[in-house]
C-alpha cells in the first residue's frame, strides 16, 4: 500500500473500539518526546487526553495528544512543519475550528495519533483536561462513557463526525454536572 492509499484509508476508517491497551501511555510518551525533540521550545505543555489516557477504558486505538502553544498564530505556523514530520491535516477542516487546530498521524492505513493544538491555559485546554481527569477519578462515569461510546460506534460506524458530536454532548453534560456539584 502506498502512502496516498494509506492516508485515504486512514481518513475513511470506520469507528471501532478496542479494549484498553497497556501500551497506549508508552505510545503517547514516545510521540510526546519525538515532538519535543523536533520542535524544541514550541510547546508549553503536551498532555495525553482522550480515552487512551484513561486506564481500563475501551477506545479507538488512536492516541489523542493535546499540545499547548502560546497563540493560535503559533499553532498555524506549526501546521506545515508538523506535516513534514509525518502528520496530515485538512486546512479546510482547521478553518472551521475555533481555538484549536487538528492533525492526524497514520500508518498502514489506520490512524495512530490525533494532535490537538490549542492555547495553553485556555478554557478549552482546561475543559479537555478536566474531562480526562473526571474519567480517571470516576469509574462509574468511565463505565457510563464506555457504554455510550459502544452505542454511538454501532450507530455511527461510518460517520466519525456524528460519533464525535455524540461524545461532545456527553462531555458537556458530564462537565456541567461536575461544575454544579462543586458549587
From TrEMBL:
Pfam families: GrpB
Classification via PANTHER family: GRPB DOMAIN PROTEIN (AFU_ORTHOLOGUE AFUA_1G01530), GRPB FAMILY PROTEIN
Protein name: GrpB family protein
Amino acid at each position: 500500500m502506498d502512502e496516498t492509499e494509506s492516508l485515504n484509508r486512514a481518513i475513511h476508517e470506520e469507528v471501532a473500539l478496542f479494549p484498553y491497551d497497556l501500551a497506549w501511555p508508552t505510545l503517547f510518551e514516545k510521540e510526546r518526546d519525538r515532538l519535543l525533540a523536533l520542535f524544541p521550545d514550541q510547546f508549553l505543555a503536551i498532555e495525553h487526553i482522550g480515552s487512551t489516557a484513561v486506564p481500563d477504558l475501551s477506545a479507538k486505538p488512536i492516541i489523542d495528544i493535546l499540545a499547548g502553544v502560546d497563540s493560535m498564530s503559533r499553532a498555524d505556523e506549526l501546521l506545515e512543519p508538523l506535516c513534514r514530520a509525518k502528520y496530515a491535516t485538512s486546512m479546510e477542516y482547521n478553518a472551521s475550528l475555533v481555538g484549536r487546530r487538528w492533525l492526524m498521524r497514520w500508518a498502514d492505513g489506520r490512524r495512530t495519533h490525533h494532535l490537538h493544538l490549542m492555547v495553553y491555559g485556555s478554557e478549552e485546554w482546561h475543559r479537555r483536561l478536566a474531562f480526562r481527569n473526571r474519567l480517571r477519578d470516576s469509574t462509574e462515569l468511565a463505565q457510563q462513557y464506555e457504554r455510550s461510546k459502544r452505542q454511538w460506534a454501532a450507530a455511527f460506524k461510518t460517520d466519525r463526525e456524528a460519533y464525535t458530536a455524540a461524545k461532545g454532548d456527553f462531555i458537556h453534560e458530564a462537565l456541567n454536572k461536575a461544575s454544579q456539584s462543586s458549587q
